[in-house]
Amino acid sequence: MTLVPILLYHSISEAASTALRPFTVSPAAFRRHLEVVANSGVWVLSISELIQRRHAGELPPRPAVITFDDGYADFHTEALPILEQFGFAATVFVTTGWLADAGPHAAGRPLDRTLTWSQVKEAAAHRVELAGHSHSHPQLDQIDGTALREELGRNKALLEDELGRPVTTMAYPYGYSNARVRRAVAAAGYEAACAVNNALAARAHDRFAMPRLTVGRGTTMTKFQAAVAGRGVPALYRKERTLTNGYAVVRRTKSAVRHSLSGLRQSR
After folding, report:
1. Does residue 159 contact residue 195 with C-beta atoms inside 8 Å?
2. Which of 3.30.499.10, 3.90.870.10, 3.20.20.370, 3.40.50.620 would CATH assign to domain 6-231?
3. What is the CB neighbour count within 10 angstroms for residue 5?
4. Handedness of CA 73, 74, 76, 77 (dihedral sign)
5. How does pLDDT run along the chain (268 residues), one tens digit per residue?
6. Cα dihedral 164→169→172→177 (10° resolution)
7. pTM for the complete prediction?
8. What gap in Å lies between CA 49 and CA 191, rounded to an integer?
């Protein structure tokens, strides 16, 4: 069984905003990460390539994927030049309402400086897959059906209009989804979607809930090397998985209470 490390980055920077700092990796550390990847013998794919090859039964012996969430400006200034030096593909999940020149489409509150549309287009010309990440970055499983369809549809339409090509993959903001959200993602025309989950991706995983491994400020080189090699990941990411699972229970409880109260109000 082929297990795939799908790496999740946010910001590649020496000095990110306070809110983003735990999810930030320095350019020097990112370069060391890619050196590990280059020396490990893995075949780096984009998310869409991984899905296509998995469907066709043509996965390379050791695939891996490098992804970035949100679309921060340092992807263009720091990450992209290093990726190009190594010749690696990557996938950037873009929150369209957060882009620096979103103009009348601006929505939500990014944690740091973000890409412009021209930089998004430039990345697309350099083995970078541009993919969806909602329009304003809400918790998709906490909004109603109308808002959910708007978030997914607007994000996908803006990306496709600007890039002139289909956008077939997306990632859930904060990694949160449920069956209702996954159905809406499929209905919006996406072929696959990424969560977080901090696990290696296996063929058994739902293509609308592909797990990823978080890489951030606290990721040691030992942990990163083991993650790329696919060794000891459950133990290495036990803390992250425990926190995620615990918070998921809290969020489901809050959602159930909110929907119950909404139903009571409507019945009066």
Report:
1. no
2. 3.20.20.370
3. 26
4. positive
5. 689 999 999 999 998 788 999 999 999 999 999 999 999 999 999 999 999 999 999 999 999 999 999 999 999 999 999 999 999 999 999 999 999 999 999 999 999 999 999 999 999 999 899 999 999 999 999 999 999 999 999 999 999 999 999 999 999 999 999 999 999 999 999 999 999 999 999 988 999 999 999 999 999 999 999 999 988 887 888 777 565 554 454 455 445 444 444 554 555 5
6. 130
7. 0.90
8. 12
Structure tokens at 153: 């549809």
Amino acid at 112: D
User: Which residue, chain included where needed, has tokens 């720091």?
Assistant: 78
For β-strands 192-197 and 169-171, DSSP reports them as parallel
Report CA-CA distances (Å) from 148 to 38, 120, 123, 173, 220.
39, 24, 27, 12, 37
Q: What are the distances in angstroms from CA 70 to CA 117, 139, 205, 218?
A: 13, 13, 23, 20
- Map out the domains of the chain as residue ranges: 6-231, 237-268
